Amino acid sequence: MNCRQWLSLFTALCLAAALSSCGSTDTDEAAQFFLRGNVQLQKREYKEAIRFYSEAINKKSDFADAYSNRGLAKFRDGQPDAALADYSKAIETDKAFGTAYFNRADTYLTLGKAQSALTDLLTIQKTYQDSTFYQSRLGEAYAGLNNLPMAQAAFDKAILLDANNVEALTNRAALFFSLKQYSDARSDIDKALTINPNQAEAWNNKSLLLAREKKYVEALAAVDKALNQTANQPFYLNNKGYLLLMLNRDAEALPLLNQSIRLNDQNAWAHRNLGVYWLRQKKASDALAALKRAEQLDPSVDKLYVYLGEAQQLAGNKTAACDAWSRGKIAGDTEATALVTQFCP
Asked: What start and end residues bound the annotated signal peptide (predicted)?
């Protein structure tokens, strides 16, 4: 079983045998194509798997397992929207198909659709609530909806069910980090990396902890380990760009920040960091554009109003600078508060 999306080959083999026993030539052929698809899926030959599953569906149009497994192959082939369509067809064909609900929820999470994911997960809760992988996804869905108490409860249960669930440990660490419970975050990250030294998200989270301690060289090495596992992950690219800025390697940072935004233009942190880059280049208008975009996406981003005020100050807009720092003061930013005291009447 893959911890990211589920496929039960035992169930698939039994199903294929049952279909073959039905006697229809088309059904027999559908079963054979289905088994061939499973072989290719296990070999990570996703396009071939998709082809065989499609042949199975052509022979048996209500073949729910073939739709579900074709969805899994499409997901792993980088086609999440097409995967969603197949999972939905599998569920339409068999409304009690728990694996299809789980995999569709997982795909929704990948696409940032936390509410849709939660709806699917709650549909199968009675059956899967004692699965550590189910609880991990439930935690991710709640975290995506900013329901942090429910997210932590789900991650806690996932880890109670399996103390070596690396994804749950990593996700709970990210939750602890957002709650400023840094010691708890560090404990979960260190345990996750002991279990799986190749867990990309854990390395990225470790880099965030190190950056907070201003250990930028060590943090850069950690995020590079994350990128070695997942080269084009936009959050990792943004994190590396920020660290390069902190190490005064601005020219190296810019292409990473731009690439991160191209891959995901909804990440407020990446726009903030791009604003920091333009601030360092003394380009007020470019800095303001990036920082205002960050504010539109998420005004709670750390030090956003400090930088926004600095950009307004650079542009010669003292009143606007003080307004930005005042908003930061209201949000509890001590650095913004100090700037208000220093520069604003």
From this structure: 1-23
Residue 18's pLDDT is 45
Residue closest to 294 by CA, chosen among 313, 314, 279:
279
Q: What H or E segment, with its residue span, contains residue 89?
A: helix 80-93
Average pLDDT on 157-183 reads 95
Whole-number Å distance between alpha carbons of 276 and 310: 10
Of 170, 212, 164, give the one whose Cα is nearest residue 187. 170
- Count of other CB atoms within 10 angstroms of residue 231: 10
Q: Which two tokens stand for residue 160?
A: 């109670």
Tens digits of residue pLDDT in 19-35: 444 456 777 899 999 99
Look up residue 283 and give its amino acid. K
Tell me the one-letter amino acid at 222.
A
- How far CA 151 is from CA of 135, 141, 147, 247, in Å, comes to 9, 7, 6, 35
The CA-CA-CA angle for residues 171, 177, 182, to 5°, reads: 120
Token pair listed for 146 = 């900013």
Is 60 exceeded by the pLDDT of residue 10? no
CB 224 within 8 A of CB 191: no
Q: How would DSSP label each residue in 234-245?
A: HHHHHHHHHHHH
| pLDDT value of position 17 | 44
Taking the C-alpha atoms of residue 292 and residue 305, their distance in angstroms, rounded to an integer, is: 10
Q: Please give the C-alpha separations between residue 120 and each of 88, 96, 108, 214, in angstroms, as whole numbers.
A: 11, 12, 9, 41
Output the six-digit token pair for 60.
């048996």
In terms of Cβ atoms closer than 10 Å to its own Cβ (0-12, 13-18, 19+), residue 130 is exposed
Element housing 193 (H / E): helix 182-195
CB 30 within 8 A of CB 63: yes
Structure tokens at 237: 């690219």
Convert 178-199 to b/e letters by CB count within 10 Å (16 or more is b).
eeeeeeebbebbebbbeeeeeb
CB 243 within 8 A of CB 220: yes
8 A C-beta contact, residue 250 and residue 241? no
